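Write out the 3D structure for:
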Amino acid sequence: MKHYLLTFFALAFLTTSMPALSSTITNAEIDKFLKSVPITSDLLDKVKAKIKKDDALSKKLSKAQLEGKYTREMVSELKAWPEYPALEAQVKQSGFDSVEAWSLVVDRVFGVVSSAQWVVLVASMPMPNSDAAPVLNRDTNLFEFLNDTNNDAKLREKYGKQLQEMCTRMCYDQSDLPVVGARFSEIKSVTNKKN
């Protein structure tokens, strides 16, 4: 009996001390992300320039990017860098509790955005030996295309499936698709301003 009580209390302690993970990204998290983009962009540009000079790190982060973990991997590398305290201050200024919380939200947003951009990129390429124009152009908002019932149902189904497939590789959670998708234009507008 004593053994069971100890196990019960240990499990209770672990479950109450672990941070709760949101199953879906929230609009409040996206708001903080959008606020962080102009605040962190200059520092992140300097960090990315340093990363480019380190071949091994650059390759490691390229692989992480394909898995939707770029920012989290970058942050784990940055902890020993002199830029980390400045990034931490900027992230907190944006409303995040920690750099780790910020990096997860960034990866969640960009996982969805990158998945959608990949589908559009492929769909906007001319097919070899075909006179037909591509169905989508490169600046198409895929989420608007998928939600517009005036668009061909077969194409909407095809690109919807492609988005789901890509998101299984690059997204933190499939449930982020509708939340980030609803704010896709706003996210693209803010992230494009920084470039």
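The radius of gyration is 20 Å.
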